[in-house]
Amino acid sequence: MVKRLLITPFQRFVTTESFSGVILFTATVLALIWANTHFGDIYQSIWQYKLGISTEDYELSKPLILWINDGLMAIFFFLIGLEIKRELLIGELNSVKKASFPFLAALGGMLVPVAFFFLLNRNPETSHAWGISMATDIAFSLAIITLLGKRVPLGLKIFLTAFAIVDDLGAVLVIAIFYSTSIKWMLLVYGLGLLSVLYFLSYRQIHAKYLILSFGIVIWFLFLKAGIHPTIAGVLLAFAVPIRQKINIQTFSERLCSISDKIRAAADNNKPILTSEQIEELDNLEEWTSKVQSPLQQLEHKLHNWVAFLIMPVFALANSGVVFSNGTALDTTLSSTIAISLMAGKFAGIFLFSWLGVKLGLAALPENTSFWQVMGVSLLAGVGFTMSIFIANLAFPDNQLLLDSAKVGILIGSFVAGVAGFLVLRISGKKPAEAKTP
């Protein structure tokens, strides 16, 4: 029973992410086709259409694509922040023993691709793109791994999810430190001051959702104007959401039994409607249900489908439309450097660091998992898509040629890594569980 309570939410998470990956793939293909047809001008003009507010003294107007990349994606990063906090406090990263294997894998998966990029890149103009090959797209990778069904043990899926979350944390830090513009410190201080108020309320177990929302909008704006990428505000804001319930499950269960008894006792079988006493008890039930739910878990649950099925597909649709038919030659060196860094760098880094961690006794393989399967997941981690494209936009904000070249490298590298990882996992799924080393 306990195992089912722990496993079922994760399986539901995997199912959601897997279907999201299918939608992401569809949006990507649609964007590529749309951008390279006679309607390509419409595609470009839609995302460059300016929206905003304007007064005599102030104007905040941005192209639609920037509202998506800076605004909607802040919600995506807020969800990532919630997931990171949950994993650090009560999940797969809440102890050294649990975190060691995915942490080492993620560390290798960040450092080695960057090393590959610097070894291959010879153009100082494109050196700022080193962060593109660091991240793993969890939606795409879980969608691929789910196609294999029972060939892939649950422990391997948990491992993939855990190191992808560590990966995301690394990408967030890289964006905050290396991809932010010149900083206006006073605006940043104001934003951090508001965050400190929310952190204090969280420490006191006070969850004021409307205060978090209103403060969040102001903090996002302050970070935007301060020169820190506003999506970082989403991550920091997530850490202000309390994870503990106001009451424990035992108290809730006792109260639930009491409410149930009162509803039954107040029943009037002669009427097809509820009595006033029953309505009052149902209101009490709603209040107690709210108290027993973790604010972090509740927010994560509500946001997940919106992010998976709306925000990420819209981001993919807006950012994947690379034009091949305009006669402009792409920077194939940059494309190949990014593709190789994703494919070979991710594989080498994750597999090598994982293998060394186990051999040195610093970590242990997940249950029912072989090194052949770790090899397959290491290849699969080269699917960088969402976060990689996001960092590409930050690396080349004013150079469409290099941005398109980077996107082509991401698409090629992600596709090859996804196919290779799928094939290795399919083959390794037939091997006996005791075959621990390749």
What does this protein look like?
This protein has two domains: 14-180 and 229-244 and 294-428, Na+/H+ antiporter like fold (Up-down Bundle); 249-288. Helices cover 71% and strands 2% of the residues. The protein has helices at residues 2-35, 40-48, 64-90, 96-120, 138-146, 154-178, 185-203, 209-226, 231-238, 249-265, 276-292, 295-319, 332-359, 371-380, 385-395, 400-428; strands spanning 50-54, 59-63. It has a two-stranded antiparallel ribbon with strand order 1-2. Helix 1 (2-35) packs parallel to helix 12 and helix 3 runs parallel beside helix 9 (231-238). It is globular, with a radius of gyration of 24 Å. The protein starts with a helix and ends in a 10-residue tail after the last helix.
**Main sheet strand line-up:** 1-2
Alpha plus pi helix count = 16
What is the fold named in CATH at topology level of the largest domain? Na+/H+ antiporter like fold
| CATH homologous superfamily designation of the largest domain | Na+/H+ antiporter like domain
Distance N to C terminus:
36 Å
User: What is the molecular shape?
Assistant: globular
Major sheet description: 2 strands, antiparallel
Number of E-type strands: 2
Level-1 CATH class name of the largest domain: Mainly Alpha
The share of residues in helices is over 70%
CATH architecture tag of the largest domain:
Up-down Bundle
Rg over CA atoms, rounded to whole Å, is: 24 Å
Order of helices and strands: HHEEHHHHHHHHHHHHHH
> What is the beta-strand fraction?
under 5%
Average pLDDT across residues?
Answer: 84
Tally of individual domains: 2
Assembly status: single chain
